[in-house]
């Protein structure tokens, strides 16, 4: 993933581009908060960010590209939190505590952006190979290896991640009416069972 | 779900319709075995079953309808096995053994019909509410209630079912190159952890 603004050539132009991109993404996030994913059109984002429509198209290609970029933006923030943020999500806490905190963070992040996650979900054959999904799974695998070194941590990580699938969260909260507190307790319970640790 | 041939009116016509439907589904299943899901067109099924193309359209509406009907057909066979078939899948074995056997049966059934499952998978917002998926989940919940009566069996059943998602099986076997034996061992291990029973 390109980090804009760090290359030695044309630092001002690149910093400008990064700021523009961030402004467009913030405008899109505001539109979603106010009108849901359906409210995000290229025109609406251009108007909200006070730029021309062409700028939005040049930056993201199309609406799907914009939705993916929005998720990528929030995925990187989450990733920064669990890679280098404060414990218990970040380093410093025992791996079991980090794993518990990770699931809760993912649950609430998905719940906040549920429509966006559903709209941007890849088709079945590519769903599990998506880079954003892989980054989370790799983190869970790393933590599991420290907690249950003799387990098949690759498979266990897949199961833990599958229980955090946005489509499942959508089903449980909106179709079955479960409160988020129950999903949070369910995650903590699942982690305890899978790692064979105390409740 | 309608059971054809059991209604008192026009028993012969209904039995005929059921036989025709079964013949078309068998022809479609043969085509998949020989040429993959891509080989299933309405024309090819009509030719293979020696009927007119119109008959196939009248019966299934379109290609997606035919694919769904094919899955429904095999789902009912699996359902008959775990509801009334011989143990350990059917009644008679302890619930823990039935749960182990259930996952293995679902795993191999999905692996056999992977392309069909992927082609017929519903969009994210409807994936978990699909009747075929619900029937399996209800069975898992029922077994879990007998094994871990104080657990949140609704949520645990969702997690167990998520680990049997055809899209995940596709990813693990075709994209990561894992053998089915490892997935089978992973299921047995997962059931032991989730139910806190011996390995």
TrEMBL record, chains A, B:
Q: Which residues form the HTH tetR-type domain?
A: 18-78
Tell me if DNA-binding is a UniProt keyword of this record: yes
Keyword check for DNA-binding, yes or no.
Answer: yes
Signal peptide positions are none
Extract the DNA-binding region annotation as residue ranges: 41-60
Cited Gene3D superfamilies: Tetracycline Repressor, domain 2 (1.10.357.10)
Q: Which UniProt keywords apply?
A: DNA-binding
Q: Which domain of life is it from?
A: Bacteria
Q: What's a single GO MF annotation on this record?
A: transcription cis-regulatory region binding
InterPro entries for this protein:
Homeodomain-like_sf, HTH-type_TetR-like_transc_reg, HTH_TetR, Tet_transcr_reg_TetR-rel_C_sf
Instruction: Enumerate the Pfam families for this protein.
Output: TetR_N
User: What is the name of this protein?
Assistant: TetR/AcrR family transcriptional regulator
> Lineage from the top down?
Bacteria, Bacillati, Actinomycetota, Actinomycetes, Kitasatosporales
